[in-house]
Amino acid sequence: MDWSVLMFLHMVGTLAVGFYLVLPFVLGRTEKLSASAREGTMNVVGSLNRLAQYGLGIQLLTGGYLMAKGDDYSLAWKIIVPVLLLAMFAVGGMMAKPLRLAAAGFRDNGNVAAETGKVKTLSALLAVLLLVMVFLMVYNDII
Ligand code: HEM
To answer: Domain tally for the chain?
Structure first.
């Protein structure tokens, strides 16, 4: 396949995972909402999280091709980048359950502090992982 087509698809994937950069800010603004509005937010974030995971899948496939075609990446880069991606997959997956439990808790007027706390921590971690990833993408000769 053409290099530029792969790069284009890689940028489309980047847009999809960009959700993880804005998520901590979105969650920060939900505190003052009613329980039913927060239930809706948790549901929507759950769907977007799944979409972003498809984006991660695209990044792994297209990035893998790009990496295989170029031969100027160090071994460290070729190891750290896929590991970072798998970490993002794992953390996104770990966030799905507390999102579901928090939505159910808001619906039943239960105590969801533990779940929303987990969602916030994991979303912050995802934002940091994404920033490190994009840094390594742009400055790919730094390691
Ligand atoms: C969250 C996941 C990812 C994001 C957001 C991302 C983002 C980007 C961006 C913005 C660029 C353009 C950088 C530039 O041209 O200066 C890029 C290039 C690239 N990415 Fe990714 N990427 C991700 C995952 C991956 C993975 C997992 C791989 C490899 C397995 C990979 C391999 C590459 C390669 C080889 C390039 C071309 C770098 C070059 O030589 O210019 N990417 N990526």
So the answer is: 1
